[in-house]
Design goal:
This protein has 134 residues and is mainly β. It contains no helices and 11 strands. The chain has one domain: Immunoglobulin-like, CATH 2.60.40. The protein starts with a strand and ends with a strand. Bound molecules: calcium ion.
Length: 134
């Protein structure tokens, strides 16, 4: 029997891994080792006027004709919290055409032509402050 699950990119390779908490047993880490067939972008939010982690920020990623919506959340499953970073699947696209971040403070930040396959840190009202490609 399992009581909690967290979703996170445990090994920072761009895909989601899962940690399952088992009742009376050791946790199980399910590493996604299938290899990335598609492109991705992982976004960490840093609030300035909003809370420090940007929890509650709504993110819209426009990729070609697709529009994908995300929210920065903490807590997810029983006594568990998933990765606070937002993982955006890009399919075959090598960039996000437009990234709109609506912060809890009502600040809206727009980023354009954000390259794929990297971890970015976005600071409220400032933009990308860190960019790492694994
Ligand atoms: Ca991973």
């Amino acid at each position: 029997m399992s009581r909690g699950a967290t979703f996170a990119d445990y090994d920072n390779d761009g895909d989601a891994d899962i940690l399952v908490m088992n009742l009376g047993g050791r946790p199980q880490l399910l590493r996604n080792e299938g290899g990335n067939q598609n492109h991705w972008l992982t976004l960490r939010s840093v609030g300035t006027r909003s809370n420090r982690d940007g929890v509650g920020a709504r993110i819209t990623a426009i990729i070609g004709s697709q529009r994908k919506n995300y929210e920065v959340k903490c807590g997810s499953s029983y006594l568990s919290s998933s990765d606070i970073r937002v993982q955006i699947g890009l399919g075959k696209s090598l960039k996000v055409d437009r990234l709109e971040i609506r912060w809890p403070s009502k600040q809206v930040d727009i980023l354009e032509n954000v390259a794929a396959n990297r971890f970015i840190v976005v600071k409220e009202g400032v933009g990308i402050i860190s960019e790492i490609s694994p």
